[in-house]
Amino acid sequence: MDIQLPEGLRPATARDWKQLGDITAEAFAEDPVNLWIFGNAQTMPPVFGELARSIYLPRGLCHLHGDTGATMWAHSAQSRELSILQTMRLVWSLMTKGEKGAAKRGLGAGEAMAREHPAAPHMYLFTIGTRKAARGQGLGKKLIRPVLEAADRTSLPCYLENSNPANTGFYISHGFERMKLFEPGPGGPPLEAMWREPRQPLGSE
User: Fold this and answer.
1) I need a surface site. Which of 86, 93, 103, 129 has the fewest CB within 10 A?
2) Residue range 11-37, pLDDT digits in tens
3) What are the chain's domains?
């Protein structure tokens, strides 16, 4: 994909996994689904960092805006399975830092998301988020647009699971539409599966 990054946005590298985890965790600290899974916000930095290190940096696309914003993407054809060692590291974080049952809820949510994932080829937006101090400055738009525009140029749809109803309007404003609501596990807050058909790039016929 020909991704054209604006000034201030850069591709993340392998050494950025912890920063990706920290920014994402702060962005999701009050997220209903993630709080239900983990039980607290302290579990989020190591978990999101491990997912960045194991999946989205080596197999996907990650972007950083200084230390204020981050995204993690992957093409649907790319495996997002964890190795045994990676799974053990993730479960260890959940068991030692999360509330009782966090590991079971986390693994169950991953299975639910995999079951509901569309089969058609697409770009998958796993996470997008900013530090609290950077909110309300248009950074979310700056973070999401490069991959959406690249997907449009290649006629590729995009997909995400929205875990916070407060963000629905943001995603709708960028062309996403609700597919369905589904539970990440028994009694969990709903995830909103959202799909975006590619748009015709400006200036094209």
Assistant:
1) 86
2) 999 999 999 999 999 999 999 999 999
3) 12-196 (3.40.630.30)
